[in-house]
Specification:
single chain; alpha/beta; UDP N-Acetylglucosamine Acyltransferase, domain 1; 16 strands; globular
């Protein structure tokens, strides 16, 4: 799925207000208060985040912010690691009149450093490395290396 208009996606999804509230509260509690990695990943999976069956194969640190409006648009494959305060944003405001929604796909064995912001509609390739504090604005290829807030991509090989 590519990026699409926010209002169109929300209208097509038709999620009830109670379910939306439960997801928001569940993600907040999971982010800050669930200390066990296995339990935290199980809660993320229950709330709609695409995680592998073996939730131990993914490391998601505490205080990782997964978009609470669209957790179903986040997919994290096995072996991936997200450090403290990573932000996975599946929606964004482009300008006054246009908002977009897009999935985030973090592929196998990708590593994302602390404080990184990943914008909507992006794929982070297999074995990619994202340095702490980066703002990821474009897809990162397999074995890509992204360093710094300007997010230039280099190759690990």
């Amino acid at each position: 799925m590519e990026r699409q208009d926010y209002d169109e996606y929300v209208a097509a999804r038709n999620r009830g207000a109670l379910k939306a509230l439960l997801i928001k509260v569940g993600l907040r509690l999971t982010t800050h208060w669930v200390f066990s990695l296995r339990l935290r990943n199980a809660f993320y999976r229950l709330l709609g985040v695409g995680l592998p069956r073996d939730t131990n194969s993914v490391y998601i640190a505490r205080e990782v912010l997964i978009d609470d409006n669209f957790p179903e648009l986040v997919t994290i494959e096995e072996g991936a690691a997200l450090s403290w305060r990573v932000m996975l944003l599946c929606h964004d405001v482009v300008n006054e009149k246009r908002r977009i929604v897009g999935p985030i796909h973090i592929k196998r064995d990708a590593k994302i450093g602390a404080g990184t912001i990943v914008l909507p509609g992006l794929t982070i390739g297999e074995h990619a490395q994202i340095g702490a504090g980066a703002i990821v604005r474009k897809d990162v290829p397999d074995y890509g290396l992204v360093i710094g807030p300007v997010s230039t991509c280099n190759w690990l090989r």
